[in-house]
Design a protein that fits this description.
CATH topology of the largest domain: Dehydroquinate synthase-like, alpha domain
Bound molecules: zinc ion
Number of domains: 2
Distance between the termini: 52 Å
Number of strands: 8
Largest sheet: 6 strands, parallel
Structural class: alpha/beta
Length: 456
């Protein structure tokens, strides 16, 4: 480490309440040193991230700093307009800026249809200010990416970890939700006064989206050890300075306590920054995310309107139960070749979506030879693998307690999801993505039907 960098890291010191950007600033600016590799963190695509107790009064200068010139539009929905959009607009007026208001319908969706409609409304603007959470950010990210028009986002809820991401999660006409190339916002501005006032379910969703880190890590390491897929510790190492902070304040999330929401917001931002190290989201998105994804794509009229993170929180508990069952076994499971039932997939997913999913599923599916090799590998490394994975286990009872305390549902029933459909999502979520996990192990060992049937 050169002297200036060492001083600069020391001055910034350990994260503490109120000093919300410490450590995060080092990470996204490319100054954090990975203790394992000695390498600096990659510079994040996003130019500026601000988490502050309040941003009231600094909205216009932040927009200016991002070089948002020319005709401006503020995009919000009626709820996010009330939560923050009107304040941003008033700040722009005070600063002598003109802008157009683009207010979407209540409860917008990040669908291609709504993206096309938004693209038309933004046709003659040069820069965009998004005011909202996941959906509005994804819509604006996707629409502005096509011609690289700059945009920044003022967040309204700590509900997911994707504010600074470069991809947009978009629904296709087939019902399938896919990750579309987007662009990073130039600035991500998170005002804790606003985020603390978000609906409770959005706060508990954000908690669910961070709670999954331990089960995702276990799945990702399993995949690495069994299939040779790559693994990187860096996304977890950057969260270490914050270890225990959010956990000790979970009760505060249930009361929308400002400080607790601050630590949640840090956890979400750090999780999002993990992607910059690996280019993929595996560190926080394995089987539990596939289950949530299945719900969003195929629940249709059975979807209770739950948020991504609420579903991820619930599926994290399911994955915890499945993983911990395996880790208690002295002997490894015996794997058979993967059975893919194309007709059943088409019945559940619709023909078009099933075709897409089957392509992904076949990439990780095991044939006779693959299953034999995996069994051999399991025999070789099972005791070692068990002890490696046990280090990261969070007891399900603890995670369940925390999720409930944060205001999140811990059963499908509590979330309003039909139980039989949730079981279907547990049983078949892994068909959607080429990421190998304990669910695939359970499926190929013939155990997944029973695991799914035990969920409620
Ligand atoms: Zn997520």
């Amino acid at each position: 480490m050169d002297r200036n960098l060492a001083e600069c890291v020391m001055e910034r010191g350990a994260p503490m309440s109120g000093n919300w950007m410490s450590h995060i600033e080092d990470v996204y600016l490319g100054l954090w040193l990975n203790p394992q590799t000695g390498k600096r963190s990659p510079r994040a695509a996003c130019e500026k991230i601000v988490i502050a107790n309040s941003l009231d009064g600094s909205e216009a200068s932040l927009v200016d700093e991002m070089g948002m010139k020319g005709s401006l539009a503020v995009v919000a929905d009626p709820e996010t307009w009330d939560a923050l959009g009107s304040r941003v607009a008033a700040a722009l007026i005070s600063a002598g800026k003109t802008y157009s208001e683009v207010i979407l319908d209540r409860h917008p969706h990040a669908s291609m249809t709504e993206a096309n409609a938004l693209a038309q409304r933004l046709d003659d603007v040069e820069s965009v200010i998004a005011v909202g959470a996941g959906t509005i950010n994804d819509l604006v990210k996707y629409v502005t990416a096509k011609d690289r028009r700059p945009y920044c986002v003022f967040g309204t809820a700590p509900s997911m970890d994707g504010y600074a991401s470069t991809t947009a999660s978009m629904s296709l006409a087939s019902g399938l939700k896919v990750s579309k190339p987007g662009q990073s916002p130039k600035g991500v501005f998170l005002d804790l006064e606003v985020l603390s006032a978000a609906p409770q379910r959005m706060i508990s969703a954000g908690f669910g989206d961070t709670l999954c880190a331990s089960v995702a890590r276990i799945d990702w390491w399993l995949s690495h050890r069994l299939t040779g897929s790559f693994f990187d510790d860096a996304p977890y190492l950057i969260t270490e300075p914050d270890a225990g902070q959010l956990e000790s304040r979970v009760a505060g999330l249930g009361e929308r306590d400002h400080e607790s929401v601050g630590w949640l917001t840090r956890a979400l931002v750090l999780s999002g920054l993990g992607v910059a190290f690996t280019g993929v989201s595996n560190h926080g998105s394995m089987a539990e995310h596939q289950i949530s994804h299945y719900i969003d794509c195929f629940a249709r009229e059975r979807h209770p309107g739950t948020l991504h993170g609420q579903q991820v929180g619930l599926a994290t508990l399911t994955m915890g139960r499945i993983q911990q069952w395996f880790l208690e076994q002295e002997y490894p499971p015996e794997i058979k070749p993967t059975r893919i039932d194309s007709d059943d997939m088409a019945r559940r997913m619709g023909r078009e979506a099933a075709k897409e999913c089957e392509t992904a599923y076949r990439q990780k599916a095991l044939d006779e030879k693959g299953a034999a090799m995996l069994n051999e590998r399991l025999q070789d490394i099972w005791p070692e693998l068990r002890s490696e994975l046990r280090a990261w286990v969070q007891p399900v009872s603890k995670m369940q307690q925390e999720l409930a305390t944060a205001g999140g549902g811990v059963t499908a029933k509590e979330l309003g999801l039909p139980v039989d459909f949730y079981r279907e999502a547990v049983r078949h979520g892994h068909e959607m993505r080429n990421r190998f996990s304990f669910i695939d192990l359970a499926c190929d060992a013939g155990l997944l039907d029973d695991f799914a049937a035990a969920e409620h």
